[in-house]
Amino acid sequence: MMKGNTQIALLGTINRDTIHTPDGVTTESFGGLLYSILALAEIASPEAAIYPVCHVGSDMEGTVREILAPYPQVKFDGITFVSSKNPHCFLEYDKEGRKQETLRNDVPQITFEQIEPFLECDAICFNFITGIELALETAEQVRKSAKSLLLMDVHSLTLGMDENRRRFWRLPPDWQRWLGCVDVVQMNEQEGALLADESLDGEKPTSRFAEKVLSLGPSMLMLTRNERGSQTFYRNASGGLQEELYAPVPAGEPQDETGCGDTFLMGFTWAFLQSNNRDKACQFANRVAGINVCLRGIDGISQIGQFLKPEERELGFADD
Question: Do 288 and 250 touch, CB atoms closer than 8 A?
Fold first, then answer.
């Protein structure tokens, strides 16, 4: 049985998305933190409470309320509607899966006072959509004060912004301090290579990087590797570095990889809170991401639950 009344806070940015994929399709959508919110709402039990903690521009208030209305698990306690225009992200994907982002508009940063009511949630997830959602000092204050499992998708921390608001790769300032704020760190292999300052194609450089990350404070590092699945690193009982490989679990023909990292982390977070089983949670994360990649935009997220088998939805982990 699932554990009732699980509470999860999600920190990030809800944004408007314009997505151009290599097949010539343009998808006008709403995304960012919505991928995490809706994916979690699709896989979570009806008794769960999901608390987005974010600012939303007044131009998107009606849209956000409409999108989230079908999900009673999603609570509005942490959402602050502001007068400024909401962030709008333009994403261009090429045939190799690389993307160019341009970000328009800003909303205020999330303060510790906004996060404080949710410090006793079962989990708090930092999902950097713009990369400037909150100050480092705020994240460190959460680390000191929270009783929750703390998770981070590094994501747009790795992106700077030029004078035309085009995003570009850069080593995040104080990235070691950022990673030290959480228990579980997730990133894709490109983001990992940037932080490691070397390719993570080989076993030795990947192990070196994992050792570095775990030395900063996290107990777990998850690297996503697209069609090659994912890797998880943690300390074994003797204190050595342990690596686990997880094969991808595609649900069909890949369509759009937008949101795969977000849905991966939600799959892991939910399953881990239900089971306290790292291995099963990582498998479930791959399953949820494998469903997401076969769907397009935020409208597709509402179909995730339709792909899950009854035994997957029930997880069956809590009694293990």
Answer: no
Which residues make Cβ contacts (< 8 Å) with residue 230, sequence separation at least 6?
222, 223, 224, 245, 246, 248, 264, 282, 285, 286
The total number of structural domains in the chain stands at 1
Per the domain annotation, does 316 fall within a domain? no
Spatial contact of 306 and 36, defined as CB atoms under 8 Å apart: no
Q: Please report which confidence band the pLDDT of residue 124 belongs to, taking 50, 70 and 90 as the band edges.
A: very high
Boundaries of domain holding 199: 7-309
> Does residue 1 lie within any of the structural domains?
no
What pLDDT does 256 receive?
A: 57
pLDDT of residue 94: 86
SS3 15: strand
The pLDDT assigned to 300 comes to 72
Query: Per residue in 37-50, is it b (16+ CB within 10 Å) or e — as a string?
Result: bbbbbbbbbeebbb
pTM of structure: 0.91
Please write the tens of the pLDDT for every residue from 21-65. Answer: 888 888 888 889 999 999 999 999 999 999 999 999 999 999 999
Is residue 260 within 8 Å of 289, Cβ to Cβ? yes
**Which residue's entry shows tokens 């990292």?**
261
317 domain residue, yes or no: no
pLDDT of residue 215: 97
CATH number at residue 86: 3.40.1190.20
Has residue 260 been placed in a domain?
Answer: yes
